[in-house]
Protein backbone atom coordinates (compact mmCIF):
# COMPACT_ATOMS: atom_id res chain seq x y z
CA UNK A 1 0.00 0.00 0.00
CA UNK A 2 2.77 2.46 0.90
CA UNK A 3 4.65 1.88 -2.35
CA UNK A 4 1.49 2.56 -4.37
CA UNK A 5 1.65 6.15 -3.13
CA UNK A 6 4.86 6.58 -5.14
CA UNK A 7 3.30 5.59 -8.46
CA UNK A 8 3.45 8.46 -10.95
CA UNK A 9 1.51 6.76 -13.75
CA UNK A 10 -0.29 9.34 -15.87
CA UNK A 11 1.81 12.29 -14.68
CA UNK A 12 3.99 14.33 -17.03
CA UNK A 13 7.30 15.78 -15.86
CA UNK A 14 9.55 18.36 -17.48
CA UNK A 15 13.21 18.01 -16.43
CA UNK A 16 15.60 20.71 -17.60
CA UNK A 17 19.26 19.90 -18.10
CA UNK A 18 18.43 16.20 -18.39
CA UNK A 19 21.16 15.35 -20.87
CA UNK A 20 23.63 14.17 -18.26
CA UNK A 21 24.52 14.11 -14.57
CA UNK A 22 21.95 15.05 -11.95
CA UNK A 23 19.19 15.86 -14.44
CA UNK A 24 19.62 12.57 -16.23
CA UNK A 25 19.47 10.61 -12.98
CA UNK A 26 16.29 12.39 -11.88
CA UNK A 27 14.66 11.86 -15.28
CA UNK A 28 15.39 8.15 -15.20
CA UNK A 29 13.86 7.62 -11.77
CA UNK A 30 10.75 9.68 -12.53
CA UNK A 31 10.24 7.52 -15.62
CA UNK A 32 10.75 4.34 -13.59
CA UNK A 33 8.00 5.57 -11.25
CA UNK A 34 5.66 5.86 -14.23
CA UNK A 35 5.88 9.51 -15.26
CA UNK A 36 6.23 10.56 -18.89
CA UNK A 37 9.42 12.62 -18.95
CA UNK A 38 9.99 15.58 -21.24
CA UNK A 39 13.73 16.10 -21.01
CA UNK A 40 15.52 19.21 -22.23
CA UNK A 41 19.15 20.02 -22.93
CA UNK A 42 21.12 22.23 -25.28
CA UNK A 43 23.06 19.30 -26.74
CA UNK A 44 20.90 17.07 -28.93
CA UNK A 45 23.03 13.94 -28.59
CA UNK A 46 22.91 14.13 -24.79
CA UNK A 47 19.15 14.50 -24.43
CA UNK A 48 18.44 11.89 -27.08
CA UNK A 49 20.66 9.45 -25.16
CA UNK A 50 18.74 10.12 -21.94
CA UNK A 51 15.31 9.62 -23.51
CA UNK A 52 16.47 6.59 -25.52
CA UNK A 53 17.66 5.02 -22.28
CA UNK A 54 14.33 5.71 -20.62
CA UNK A 55 12.40 4.15 -23.49
CA UNK A 56 14.70 1.14 -23.70
CA UNK A 57 13.96 0.53 -20.00
CA UNK A 58 10.22 0.57 -20.74
CA UNK A 59 9.51 4.18 -19.81
CA UNK A 60 7.98 7.04 -21.77
CA UNK A 61 9.75 10.21 -22.74
CA UNK A 62 10.27 13.04 -25.19
CA UNK A 63 13.53 14.81 -25.97
CA UNK A 64 13.45 18.56 -26.67
CA UNK A 65 16.57 20.52 -27.56
CA UNK A 66 16.29 23.85 -25.77
CA UNK A 67 18.25 26.50 -23.92
CA UNK A 68 16.61 27.07 -20.52
CA UNK A 69 17.89 30.67 -20.48
CA UNK A 70 15.78 31.42 -23.56
CA UNK A 71 12.12 32.30 -22.97
CA UNK A 72 11.22 31.39 -26.58
CA UNK A 73 12.90 27.99 -26.19
CA UNK A 74 11.22 27.41 -22.83
CA UNK A 75 7.85 28.43 -24.27
CA UNK A 76 8.35 25.89 -27.04
CA UNK A 77 9.11 23.19 -24.44
CA UNK A 78 5.90 23.87 -22.51
CA UNK A 79 3.77 24.27 -25.65
CA UNK A 80 5.13 21.00 -27.06
CA UNK A 81 4.41 19.22 -23.78
CA UNK A 82 0.83 20.46 -23.70
CA UNK A 83 0.26 19.62 -27.37
CA UNK A 84 1.65 16.11 -27.02
CA UNK A 85 0.39 15.15 -23.57
CA UNK A 86 -2.21 17.73 -22.56
CA UNK A 87 -0.78 18.32 -19.09
CA UNK A 88 2.30 19.08 -17.02
CA UNK A 89 2.31 17.89 -13.43
CA UNK A 90 5.96 18.13 -12.43
CA UNK A 91 8.75 20.60 -13.20
CA UNK A 92 12.32 19.92 -12.17
CA UNK A 93 14.45 23.05 -12.63
CA UNK A 94 17.86 21.43 -12.77
CA UNK A 95 19.75 23.77 -15.11
CA UNK A 96 22.56 25.70 -13.47
CA UNK A 97 26.28 26.02 -13.07
CA UNK A 98 29.22 28.37 -12.95
CA UNK A 99 32.83 28.62 -13.99
CA UNK A 100 35.56 28.86 -11.38
CA UNK A 101 36.84 32.40 -10.79
CA UNK A 102 38.35 34.02 -7.73
CA UNK A 103 36.30 36.86 -6.29
CA UNK A 104 38.48 39.69 -7.61
CA UNK A 105 38.52 38.13 -11.07
CA UNK A 106 34.74 37.75 -11.57
CA UNK A 107 33.49 40.03 -14.34
CA UNK A 108 30.09 41.71 -14.31
CA UNK A 109 29.11 39.58 -17.30
CA UNK A 110 30.13 36.32 -15.59
CA UNK A 111 28.24 37.24 -12.43
CA UNK A 112 25.06 38.08 -14.34
CA UNK A 113 25.33 34.97 -16.52
CA UNK A 114 25.69 32.70 -13.49
CA UNK A 115 22.62 34.28 -11.89
CA UNK A 116 20.62 33.86 -15.10
CA UNK A 117 21.84 30.28 -15.50
CA UNK A 118 20.78 29.25 -12.01
CA UNK A 119 17.84 31.55 -11.18
CA UNK A 120 16.33 33.22 -14.23
CA UNK A 121 16.07 29.88 -16.03
CA UNK A 122 13.99 28.48 -13.15
CA UNK A 123 11.87 31.64 -13.01
CA UNK A 124 11.06 31.44 -16.73
CA UNK A 125 10.11 27.75 -16.75
CA UNK A 126 8.09 28.05 -13.54
CA UNK A 127 6.19 31.06 -14.82
CA UNK A 128 5.34 29.18 -18.04
CA UNK A 129 4.12 25.95 -16.41
CA UNK A 130 2.30 27.52 -13.45
CA UNK A 131 -0.85 28.56 -15.38
CA UNK A 132 -1.33 25.00 -16.61
CA UNK A 133 -0.85 23.59 -13.11
CA UNK A 134 -3.24 26.14 -11.60
CA UNK A 135 -5.88 25.32 -14.19
CA UNK A 136 -5.46 21.60 -13.44
CA UNK A 137 -5.66 22.29 -9.70
CA UNK A 138 -2.33 20.72 -8.80
CA UNK A 139 1.37 20.74 -9.59
CA UNK A 140 4.84 20.26 -8.17
CA UNK A 141 7.99 22.29 -8.83
CA UNK A 142 11.43 21.27 -7.57
CA UNK A 143 14.44 23.56 -7.88
CA UNK A 144 17.89 21.98 -7.71
CA UNK A 145 20.06 24.08 -5.41
CA UNK A 146 23.40 23.53 -3.69
CA UNK A 147 24.97 23.53 -0.26
CA UNK A 148 26.97 26.50 -1.49
CA UNK A 149 23.86 28.62 -0.86
CA UNK A 150 24.43 28.34 2.89
CA UNK A 151 28.23 28.26 3.09
CA UNK A 152 30.70 29.92 0.77
CA UNK A 153 33.04 28.12 -1.58
CA UNK A 154 36.23 29.77 -2.70
CA UNK A 155 36.36 30.64 -6.42
CA UNK A 156 32.57 30.12 -6.70
CA UNK A 157 31.17 33.35 -5.22
CA UNK A 158 28.80 33.97 -8.13
CA UNK A 159 27.47 30.41 -7.88
CA UNK A 160 26.94 30.72 -4.11
CA UNK A 161 24.95 33.92 -4.59
CA UNK A 162 22.91 32.46 -7.44
CA UNK A 163 21.93 29.32 -5.54
CA UNK A 164 20.97 31.47 -2.56
CA UNK A 165 18.76 33.42 -4.95
CA UNK A 166 17.22 30.20 -6.24
CA UNK A 167 16.27 29.19 -2.70
CA UNK A 168 14.71 32.63 -2.13
CA UNK A 169 12.75 32.18 -5.37
CA UNK A 170 11.62 28.77 -4.12
CA UNK A 171 10.20 30.26 -0.91
CA UNK A 172 8.53 33.15 -2.72
CA UNK A 173 6.87 30.88 -5.29
CA UNK A 174 5.79 28.40 -2.62
CA UNK A 175 3.91 31.10 -0.75
CA UNK A 176 2.31 32.66 -3.80
CA UNK A 177 1.38 29.49 -5.70
CA UNK A 178 -0.05 27.53 -2.74
CA UNK A 179 -2.27 25.64 -2.30
CA UNK A 180 -2.49 24.32 -5.86
CA UNK A 181 1.24 24.19 -6.56
CA UNK A 182 3.90 22.97 -4.15
CA UNK A 183 7.41 24.36 -4.58
CA UNK A 184 10.51 22.93 -2.91
CA UNK A 185 14.26 22.86 -3.46
CA UNK A 186 16.91 20.21 -3.02
CA UNK A 187 20.32 21.51 -1.94
CA UNK A 188 22.99 19.13 -3.19
CA UNK A 189 26.36 18.16 -1.89
CA UNK A 190 28.93 16.33 -4.01
CA UNK A 191 27.42 13.82 -6.42
CA UNK A 192 29.14 11.24 -8.57
CA UNK A 193 28.70 12.71 -12.05
CA UNK A 194 30.98 12.56 -15.06
CA UNK A 195 31.49 16.32 -14.75
CA UNK A 196 32.71 16.12 -11.16
CA UNK A 197 34.86 13.09 -11.90
CA UNK A 198 36.52 14.95 -14.77
CA UNK A 199 37.53 17.71 -12.38
CA UNK A 200 38.74 15.28 -9.73
CA UNK A 201 40.81 13.37 -12.28
CA UNK A 202 42.90 16.50 -12.75
CA UNK A 203 43.97 16.32 -9.09
CA UNK A 204 45.09 12.84 -7.99
CA UNK A 205 43.80 11.98 -4.53
CA UNK A 206 41.15 14.73 -4.57
CA UNK A 207 38.20 12.32 -4.53
CA UNK A 208 39.52 10.72 -1.38
CA UNK A 209 39.92 14.17 0.24
CA UNK A 210 36.36 15.09 -0.70
CA UNK A 211 34.96 11.87 0.68
CA UNK A 212 36.95 12.23 3.90
CA UNK A 213 35.53 15.74 4.38
CA UNK A 214 31.98 14.38 3.98
CA UNK A 215 30.48 12.78 7.12
CA UNK A 216 29.06 9.83 5.15
CA UNK A 217 32.48 9.38 3.49
CA UNK A 218 31.08 8.87 -0.01
CA UNK A 219 29.74 10.84 -2.96
CA UNK A 220 26.03 10.98 -3.68
CA UNK A 221 24.13 8.86 -6.19
CA UNK A 222 22.19 10.97 -8.72
CA UNK A 223 19.31 8.51 -8.75
CA UNK A 224 18.85 9.09 -5.01
CA UNK A 225 17.78 12.62 -5.95
CA UNK A 226 15.25 11.12 -8.33
CA UNK A 227 13.71 9.13 -5.51
CA UNK A 228 13.27 12.31 -3.46
CA UNK A 229 11.68 14.00 -6.48
CA UNK A 230 9.24 11.08 -6.73
CA UNK A 231 8.22 11.64 -3.10
CA UNK A 232 7.81 15.37 -3.66
CA UNK A 233 5.61 14.63 -6.69
CA UNK A 234 3.16 12.36 -4.90
CA UNK A 235 -0.31 13.89 -4.38
CA UNK A 236 -0.21 13.26 -0.63
CA UNK A 237 3.14 15.02 -0.11
CA UNK A 238 2.74 17.70 2.60
CA UNK A 239 5.99 19.53 1.85
CA UNK A 240 6.20 22.98 0.32
CA UNK A 241 8.45 25.98 0.94
CA UNK A 242 11.16 23.53 2.04
CA UNK A 243 14.85 23.17 1.27
CA UNK A 244 15.92 19.53 1.47
CA UNK A 245 19.63 19.04 2.15
CA UNK A 246 20.95 15.94 0.40
CA UNK A 247 24.66 16.31 0.91
CA UNK A 248 26.10 13.48 2.99
CA UNK A 249 25.97 15.60 6.14
CA UNK A 250 28.40 18.39 5.22
CA UNK A 251 28.14 21.66 7.14
CA UNK A 252 31.00 23.41 5.36
CA UNK A 253 32.85 23.38 2.07
CA UNK A 254 34.30 19.93 1.23
CA UNK A 255 35.96 20.98 -2.02
CA UNK A 256 39.53 19.68 -2.40
CA UNK A 257 40.53 22.58 -4.67
CA UNK A 258 43.67 24.29 -3.32
CA UNK A 259 42.57 27.94 -3.49
CA UNK A 260 45.23 30.05 -1.71
CA UNK A 261 44.59 33.08 0.51
CA UNK A 262 44.94 36.54 -1.03
UniProtKB/TrEMBL annotation:
Domain Ketoreductase residues, every copy: 11-195
Main location (coarse class): secreted
Superkingdom in the source lineage: Bacteria
Reaction equations catalysed: a (3R)-hydroxyacyl-[ACP] + NADP(+) = a 3-oxoacyl-[ACP] + NADPH + H(+)
Subcellular location: Secreted, Cell wall
InterPro entries the UniProt entry points to: KR_dom, NAD(P)-bd_dom_sf, Sc_DH/Rdtase_CS, SDR, SDR_fam
Keyword field: Cell wall, Secreted
Keyword match Secreted: yes
Secreted in keyword set: yes
Stated family: Belongs to the short-chain dehydrogenases/reductases (SDR) family.
Protein name per Swiss-Prot or TrEMBL: 3-oxoacyl-[acyl-carrier-protein] reductase MabA
Organism the protein comes from: Mycobacterium paraterrae
Amino acid sequence: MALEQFNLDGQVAIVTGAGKGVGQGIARVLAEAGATVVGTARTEADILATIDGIEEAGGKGLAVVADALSRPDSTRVVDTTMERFGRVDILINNVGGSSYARFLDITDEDFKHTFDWCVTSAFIMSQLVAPHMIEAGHGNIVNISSGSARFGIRALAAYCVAKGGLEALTRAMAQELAPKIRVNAIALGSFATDGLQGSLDLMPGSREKMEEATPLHRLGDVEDLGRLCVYLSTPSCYATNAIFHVDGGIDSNNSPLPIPDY
